[in-house]
Amino acid sequence: MIDKTTDQSQAVKFLVIAASFVVIVAGMKAAESIIVPFLLALFIAIIASPPYFWLQEKGIPKALSMLIVIFAFLFVISIIGLLIGTSINDFTSKLPLYETKLRSQMQGVIAWLTEAGILEKQINLNEMFNPSSVFKIVANTLNEVSGLFANGFLILLMIIFMLLEVSSLPLKLKKMFVDPETSIKRVNSISENINKYIAIKTAISIGTGLLVTIFLIIVGVDYPVLWGVLAFALNFIPTIGSIISLIPPLLLTIVQLGFGDAIIVLIGYLIINTIMGNILEPRLMGKGLGLSTLVVFISLIFWGWVLGPIGMLLSVPLTITIKIILDSSEETRWFAILLGPEKTE
């Protein structure tokens, strides 16, 4: 009788958790226009908090430290916005021309393969691959991301208030919990791991974006800054992101410079991502801050469905944050292990 009651309570508990999850996800999807700017502001605030506190440690007043950090952020965003805005408009206007050239070149390759006997019959290019869809997806995504910064003032205000609130958080935690010391240690451990992940990932992504930009300038591919920013943004999505960021510049290289240079671009991307993502990043990141490839793919689909393109870019940081929180408790650590990479010790 007791076992039956226990089983029923466990089943009820599971149903309550499942129902709560569905309600939360539905609420997030409905409130996408509010949640996306908030998450973006939170992400930027986490990146901005180390220099903000470093300036205060050097004796600079809090208000002046805030102004320096905010003006630095606005300067960087303005420069990137000017460069990217021009590139996006020019790239979008030339999409029909690129599509026509790519189709012509691909049809030429298919005809050559057919004549050589490698293919038995001519292939309809639209059935195999639609090149225009790739370019259009990239253009629409970049336009949507750049359109998000129309809410720039709101995001900026949220960043300022978040940075101001961080310093008072320990005092609030002491008043919130019965055992404040243990709770503060746990919160500090979670925040340190989140800060560590975002700081290292951001640094690696900036390095990847810069290397891609310089490399494409040397090769002579159009819009190198645009593809560098794309490589920076998508580098937050392990493995899958680097593949996605390669496709548009690779297709553009085929159209602009030919297949020989496209192979050079492919090799260059492989070298850059291998050094930055497979050698440097694991050494800096350490153990415990990774995700399995399957979880990365599922999180990309899930957060993209819930929050749109920005959700896709923030999918891995959001999932890593959940994993770190789960890993901080003995009761939920088993789930954090399931989310982790394939190789565990």
Helix segment count? 15
**Low-confidence stretches at least 5 residues in length (pLDDT < 50)?**
none
What oligomeric state best describes the polypeptide chains here?
single chain
Biggest β-sheet strands, sense, barrel: none
Q: Output the helix-strand order.
A: HHHHHHHHHHHHHHH
| Number of structurally distinct domains | 3
Helix content: over 70%
Rg on CA atoms, Å: 24 Å
The structural class is mainly alpha
| Beta strand count | 0
Strand content is under 5%
Q: Give the mean pLDDT.
A: 79
Terminal CA distance: 41 Å
State the shape: globular
Features:
0% strand, mainly alpha, 345 residues, 3 domains, single chain, globular
Describe this structure in words.
- It is a single chain.
- The protein has 345 residues and is mainly α.
- The protein folds into three domains: 33-167, no CATH class; 191-286, no CATH class; 288-345, no CATH class.
- The chain has helices spanning 2-30, 32-57, 62-93, 95-115, 125-128, 131-148, 152-166, 169-176, 180-219, 224-234, 240-256, 259-285, 293-313, 315-327, 333-339.
- Helix 8 packs antiparallel against helix 9 and helix 9 (180-219) packs antiparallel against helix 14.
- The longest helix is centred in the middle third of the chain and has 40 residues, at 180-219.
- The model has no long low-confidence stretch (mean pLDDT 79).
Summarize the model shown.
This protein has 345 residues and is mainly alpha-helical. The protein is built from 15 helices and no strands.
